[in-house]
Amino acid sequence: MRSSREFQRVFRSGRSFPGRLIVLHVLTEPGLVRRAGFVAGRKVGGAVRRNRAKRLLREAYRCQKHRVPPLGVHLILVARTSCAGAGERDVESELIVLLDRADVAAGPDPRNETDDDHNA
Question: pTM of the entire structure?
C-alpha cells in the first residue's frame, strides 16, 4: 500500500487490534486484493529507529503472509514505541496473535504440518 487514500480508508473503515509492539488495522471487503502497509510514527524515535521498526514489521509480515488470504484483506501494521527495540521473533509472534485475533488467518502454517505417512 502506498497512497494516503488507501491508508486512510483502512484507518477509517477497518478494525484495529492493539498489541504490545504492533497495532494491526484490518479492512475486509470481498473485492480487495491482499495488500499491506507499514507505519512507524515519530513517537517511535528518530529515523534510524523508525526504519528499524518498519524493517521488523515487513519481515514479520513476509514470514507470515501465507496466513492471510490472497483476496479480501488490506492490512496496516503500525509500530509502537517498543517495536524498534524488540527482536524479530517477538514481532513475528505478536503478529501471529493479532492475525488470529483479527480472524483473518487463513489456517495453520502449512510449513509446520507433518506428513504421517513418511513418519510411520
Answer: 0.86
